[in-house]
Structure formats: structure tokens, C-alpha cells
Amino acid sequence: MKRRCDVDRQKLIKKGASIAVACAAIAILCSACASIEPKPWEKDLMARREMLLDPYPLQTAADDHIYFSKEASSGGRGFAGGGCGCN
Amino acid sequence: MMGRRGQCTNDFNGQLRIAAKGYQTMGLIFKAGPILSLLAALYAYTASPVRADELDLSAYKGKVVYLDFWASWCTPCRVSFPWMNDVQQTYGNKGLVVIAVNVDHDRSLADEFLRANYPQFKIVYDPDGKIASKYDFKDMPTSFLIGRDGKIRYVHNGFLPKQDAKYIADINTLLNEKAL
Amino acid sequence: MFSASLLAATMVPVTNEAKAQNNDSNYNNDIFGPGIAYSEIDSALLVYQEPGGRVRAIEPSTDLTAHGAGGEELNLGLVFDAVSGATPNGAVPSDKIQTFVTPLKAQGSTVTVTSASGGSTVIHLPPSPGEVASAALGRQYTVAPNALPMDRGFRDHRIGFNLGMSFPLGGISNVGFGGGYSIERDYRAITANARIAHNFNSDDTTISLSLNTELDSSFPYGGVPTPLTPMIPDWKTPSSRGKTQLGLVLGLTEVMTRRWLMQLDYSLDMQNGYQNDPYRIISVVDPLSGEPTSYLYENRPNNRQSQSLFWDNKLDYDPAVTDLSLRYFKDSWGVTSETAELSERIRLARWVYVEPSARWYQQSAANFFDNYLVGGQPLPAFASPDPRLGKFTAITYGAKIGFNPTGRTELYLRGGYYQQTGDGHPADAIGQLKQQNLFEGTNAAFVFLGYNWDFH
């Protein structure tokens, strides 16, 4: 029969451990991302038109229209980001 | 926590110690992450031979240096080049030297840009970004205004024609300082 | 900073000619972007055709954008749609001739029905109580045995425009808002959106949020039918019904490496109001023979909530740029879908590229989807035979070629083939329906021609 304080202590340890794991994952991801993300002078490829998120908006709109008329799902795409980051 | 008669008491201090240990561990992990990646980066850097692609500004001590980092793919640079030409022409005899460091990976793209933009100032090529890394800036283009004492005094992030007056004011401030 | 020698310093010769040209140098360049004020005209034409005389659509569109030097943008878009051809009316095929009636375009109109509209005849409906002669006209058409019942008299035009603007505001990288309006003979949509985005990490990370809303009105020919009541050509009330939509998209864009751009978006969408297809009917069949005994107008729930997760990756490894995206969608109607799309843009020379692409899509049926209803059983609250809500898999094969002789202009041509496959022979088919193909989805071919032009 576990005493309530023992159960409490186990819960606290479990909670602390899960928070530690989450922070570790975020820290490793953030530092990993930061170490491989390009510096501002390394954004040459991102400046090209073909590396924009949506370089041909009319083509995307036409595709969306076709799929919207034939399928139950629609949308999902975002709009901002990428590019050379100039200025 | 066990009390004297085998009863549980709410040992606040004990629980606090456990929590503190937990936070300490998290802190260590949090610090370890960036340290580990720094170690990895250092390893990568030292594993390959160091190249001597460095910018020596000692020749320009006593002059005001406008050090601009540009690339063929950086569209604001198309507007900054004519402006830098004007500035070099106007303030050159007062001791201003414009040096433009190119960070293109592909030299032919940089040359194409130069053919269209007729720079009247020094061009330095930094294809591996070694000079750029030393100055470590946050925007493209970025200009560093270096005073007659050889120290970086102003940093211009991006090139905004609206801020032309501020750029000129900064240049004049440094030009008006007496050489050491 | 003070060690080795100066690297490859070059001094470019100074000439007066060069100085004179400098004033125009920012106009000599072929590629526009941040910090440069310029305008763009994009125009395109879509031609879409389903086989067997089914839907054909011709859709020209154009987009005008003015870019300010400080990152401001003003955009006007126009689209025109001409759609015609046969479309399934929702009834299942039968081994006997079937006859359907539908109201004519407008109350009191006189219509010449030519043979091109596929064998439908104008009928006069009996006058309603108190009327001497009926003003109601209906259109009656027959469908051959064992053929998929289709309404061939379908023809519509749509025009839509949208206006938007975006700009940096204070410390925020980008805020924008816009609105749109679209109208066709029996449907109208008014849209509005607002969005905000911010860049971090030297512009390597972008977080964005957009809110969008839409107000739709459906005013079908002959009025809005009462759901799950028998098909009649007579005028119905009300004459229109509407629906509202509210949605948000939360986005994270990350420049992962110099060559790899990633985007992750979460969307939430809520729709309330009339979402039926007012022309679609569902067959009620005899429980033994499977012969249709009557046709009822379909019904869908008034509320629909959906969520989706979209993940897109673009990788640049000269001469190819790869785009791989995945989307997962789930809604409160019981539809779940998965989409995977891959395209490979290959630069053949500086001024020409080809881009093959493929898309795989799979969806489950809505929980009120039914090919038909069985007579004698209690009517469900909701039922729809619309193949858009059924279970199917679809594959699109695409190929595109583009020409950009200068950085200012591009011409491209894209062709695609869309193929839907679904179960046309469910195990629980009754009677004569066992011999029929119950899958109403289709294939389609499309061609898309586009032209972009950047200028000052």
C-alpha cells in the first residue's frame, strides 16, 4: 500500500523528468537549427524565384480550384516566409 | 517524507530540494545543447585547413572606411551601388574609402552584377563567407562605418534610400573627427 | 582582421560615361525584389476537360501587383470562369430508362431548347391553385438504361475579383488584409481576410497567422428545395439560402539550411449554414430489385468543422529544385484525407526549365455519404451521393515547361491528367445495382498557360 506522500513524490519526479526531456528536445532542436541555419550572406539560393514558397500564385489557384471542385478537402497552405531576407 | 511516527508530513524543504535538482538538471541540459553544437562547429572548422582570406584594413588607418557587404542576389544592392558611387566621389578627397565585399558563391554572377553597376570603388571577393563571418551581421546588405581609429562606429542594416540623410550624417561625423 | 594580405582587390575604371549610366543602373537589372519598386502582371488561362462530354471549364485569370521599395504590396486579381457540360445528378444507373425534371433557368423565361443540350424538352407544369395558366417551366430529360444519369444542360459563368494590400507595420514584419467577391448565376461569395507575419533569426524563421471569412449565398434555379423531399420541377421556397465561414491558418516557415526551406501550417475552418448541392438527388431503390422508385433532394449537416496540417519542403540542388509536400485533413463530416505532392523543377539552360510533378490523394467517405437509399427503411437525417464526399483515390500526373529569357518575363505551359478511382461495385449492392458501376468520380485533363511580366 503506497503512502500518499510516496505517490506524490513519484508524480513530482515523473513530471520533472518529462519537463526536462521536453526542454532538452527544444534546446537540442533550437541549437541544432541555429547551427545549420544559413547566415544572412548565405541566402543566395533562397533569393531565387523557384525557391519562393508560392512562385506561381495563379497556377496554385487554378490547381486549388480543380481539386476543390472534385474533392472534399481544401486549403491548408500558408503564405509567408522564405526569401533572401534582404533589408 | 516520513515523519517521526511513520506519518507523512508535507516536507516542503525536501520537495523543494528535489525540484531544485530537477531544474539544475534541466539547466545543464539546456546549456549542453548549444555547447555541444559549438563543439561540433569548432571541430568542423579546425578539421579543415584555415585559409588566409582575410581583409586587411591596416592600410586604411587614418581614413574613414565604408565597408559594405553585398551580393548579386541582393536586390537593395542595386540601389546602394549608385549611391556608394556618389558617396565615394563626393567624400573621397576628405578621406572616405568605400570597400564592397562580395559574398556570392558564384563569381560569374558577381561579375555580371558589376558589369551592370559600374562601381567606382574597391571590390573584395569573399565567396566562402570568411570575412562575413568575422563581421557577423544580421542583414543583407550591411555596411560598417569604420572611423579613422580603425574601430567600427556605425552599422547600417539593409539599404533604405529613405535613410540616406542618416547615412550621410554618420559619414560626416566620422570624417570630421581628426585623424589620430 | 589585421593579419594576411588583402584578397583580390579590383579597382574598376572610372569614366564619365559610367557615371552618367549609374543614374539608370538600378533600371538595368532584370530581377526585381526587396528594396526595389516595381510592378508585376501575371496572366493565365486554364482549360479543363472531363471525358465523355462531362464538365469543361475555361478560366482566364490575371493578377496585378505593385511592390513598393519598403516592402509594401498592393494586389488586384481577376478571374473569369465559363463552365459547361454534363454533370451527374446524383441518381444511380438503372437497367430501365429514367426520366428527370428540373426547373428552367428563370421564372417566366422563354427558352429555346436545342438538341445540343442533350435531349431535354421543355414542359409546362400544371398551374398551381388559383393560377389560370402556369408560369412555371420545367426541363425534362431522359437517361438511357445502364447509363450514369447526367444533366447535360449545365452551363454557367462566374466572375470574381480580389483586392489586397500588405506592408510592414511598426516592428511587425508584415500585416495585410484583403477582400474578394465572386458571382455566378446561382451563387455568390464575399470574402475578407487579415494576416500578420513576423520574421526572426535574420529572417530564417517566420511565424504567421491569417484569419479569413466568407459569406456565401446560394440562389438555385427554381428555388431551394426542401431536403429529402421528392424531386419536382416546380418553384420552391425559399429562393435563397446562405452560409458563413470562418477560418484561421497558423504558419511556421523555417529556412533549415542554405538549400532547404520548410513550411508547416495548421488550418482550422468552420462553416455554418446551407451546404447542400441544391440540384443533387439521391435515388431511393426497391429493397429487392434495386430499381429506383423515387428521387429525393440531398441533405448535408449545417455545421462543418475541419482541420488540416500541411508540411512543405523545398530543396535546391542545382540544376533541380524539389518540392515535396504532405497534407493531412480531417473534418466533422467524417472525411479524412491524405495528400502527397512532389515536383521536380529541372533547369535545362539558363532560360528554360521543365518540371514533372505527381500528386497522390486519398479520402474517406463522409459519414452521410450514400450511393442510394433503400426504400422501406427510415430516412436518415443526412444523405448525399456527391462523389466529392465519397471514398476514392486520385492521382495527378503533371508536366510543365517554362521559358524565362530575361529575369523580367516568363512564359510557361503546364499539362496535367487527373485520375480518380473508387469502388463502383460495393459488396452490399442490391438487385440490378450489382451490375451497375456506382462510382461517379471521373478523370480530367487540363492545360495551364501562364505569362508573367515584371516592370517599373
Task: Describe the protein.
- The complex is a heterotrimer of chains A (87), B (180) and C (456).
- Chain A is mostly helical.
- In chain A, 54% of the residues lie in helices and 0% in strands.
- Chain B contains five helices and five strands, in the order H-E-H-E-H-E-H-E-E-H.
- The longest helix of chain B has 36 residues, at 12-47.
- Chain B starts with 11 loop residues before the first helix and ends in a 5-residue tail after the last helix.
- Chain B has helices at 12-47, 76-91, 107-117, 130-135, 164-175, and strands at residues 64-70, 96-102, 122-125, 142-146, 152-157.
- By secondary structure, chain B is α/β, with parallel strands linked by helices.
- With 456 residues, chain C is mostly beta strands.
- Chain C is built from one helix and 23 strands.
- Chain C has one helix spanning 16-22, and strands at 10-11, 38-49, 56-67, 73-88, 98-103, 120-124, 137-143, 150-169, 172-184, 187-200, 205-218, 241-257, 260-273, 281-285, 292-297, 303-317, 320-331, 336-349, 352-363, 373-374, 392-406, 409-421, 444-455.
- The two termini of chain C are 41 Å apart.
- Strand 3 of chain B pairs antiparallel with strand 1 of chain C, so a sheet runs across the interface.
